[in-house]
Amino acid sequence: xxxxxxxxxxxxxxxxxxxxxxxxxxxxxxxxxxxxxxxxxxxxxxxxxxxxxxxxxxxxxxxxxxxxxxxxxxxxxxxxxxxxxxxxxxxxxxxxxxxxxxxxxxxxxxxxxxxxxxxxxxxxxxxxxxxxxxxxxxxxxxxxxxxxxxxxxxxxxxxxxxxxxxxxxxxxxxxxx
Length: 177
Fold this sequence. Notes:
By secondary structure, the protein is mainly alpha-helical. The chain has helices spanning about 5-15, 20-40, 45-60, 70-90, 110-125, 125-140, 145-150, 155-175.
């Protein structure tokens, strides 16, 4: 029987069980890396570095997890903060220089051309819309969970997802004509 995230967290907090934390990392590393790849414009090396930093911070601060949201939501928040700190260090704050990030196809996709079109369209969205779309539509977070991750009002998340999806539809429809 597979243990739940809550059971694994209890083992980490009560017993200091590093193997339990390792299992949490295994469960959540792909979605965290996927989010960071989207935020970094598929810069795989940077996304991996930020994911590693995310899990180091999570381990160091595991006692601060209050259980008010899912563990994955808490991890996404840490990952998003790591990304923002990296952007600040590069003096690009939330309005990252759009030209700097290259879009690379994800080799795990079944249709590389479609994946490339979607990645290119996502890359053209403003960061706040791209982040909301990735969290809610790709990573399956609810609007409320995304609002917690991004530390913005629920209505803003809903607006960003709606506007981002509409822009994606228009871009992709124009490209297929």
